[in-house]
Amino acid sequence: xxxxxxxxxxxxxxxxxxxxxxxxxxxxxxxxxxxxxxxxxxxxxxxxxxxxxxxxxxxxxxxxxxxxxxxxxxxxxxxxxxxxxxxxxxxxxxxxxxxxxxxxxxxxxxxxxxxxxxxxxxxxxxxxxxxxxxxxxxxxxxxxxxxxxxxxxxxxxxxxxxxxxxxxxxxxxxxxxxxxxxxxxxxxxxxxxxxxxxxxxxxxxxxxxxxxxxxxxxxxxxxxxxxxxxxxxxxxxxxxxxxxxxxxxxxxxxxxxxxxxxxxxxxxxxxxxxxxxx
Length: 278
Ligand SMILES: C[S@@+](CC[C@H](N)C(=O)[O-])C[C@H]1O[C@@H](n2cnc3c(N)ncnc32)[C@H](O)[C@@H]1O
Hints:
CATH architecture: 3-Layer(aba) Sandwich
Helix content: 40-55%
Radius of gyration: 18 Å
Strand order of the largest sheet: 4-3-2-5-6-9-8
Number of domains: 1
Number of helices: 12
Distance between the termini: 27 Å
CATH superfamily: Vaccinia Virus protein VP39
Low-confidence stretches: none
Bound molecules: S-adenosylmethionine
């Protein structure tokens, strides 16, 4: 596991409060990588990643879903609209909660997801109250990942599933250079740590899950950052970031670091479907 102990939770919250606008301008309503089979437009690629995860997890119509780290509500709305799921989305950012609620209301998606502003590391849900926990690119920001998986296991009904996508550290042993590349990404993207694929599998198993399927989508998703880089260069987003503060410039300047880390194997992009066994 790669650790970056200087990250603070308040900084993560501030980042999402302010950067949500950047994500919306640069990328779209989903704050996650796209998944490319060919040359499809970026919006289609973002939806493809959501669709792929939902289909691998076998999310059924009308399922109860907790969307942990829900961003602007992109996945929550997709699951409600396409599979009539009853979704509760959780985000650390009050701005995102508001954004997700207003956009769900404006688009008339039904059943309308509920959004809460809360910390995934402390939020309480009743025991065995959901069919699925869904989380795309949020666990990177959590400080005690093993404990989070223990708690999430308690929310799931027996046989319930966790569907997860995450930025991963490469597998050990990594060279000094690879470790520095992964730490640089953590600093720029506000991740207190990055687990490897085997770290995540261990955390799931220790929390009473069995791994149904897991895999790496790095080559399918890495184009995301080429596109974001081009969009930053073509627009005035960097000027806006300078006005808003150094952390926002730091974030834009780290797109190259992510691309490099993917190329060298310092980082990977992974998905996991895990089923609660006890
Ligand atoms: C990269 S965004 C992904 C958003 C969303 N899953 C999507 O795919 O569009 C990361 C999300 O994790 C949330 N997050 C980070 N730390 C969190 C925490 N401790 N509790 C709840 N949400 C958190 C952020 O607020 C943000 O919504």
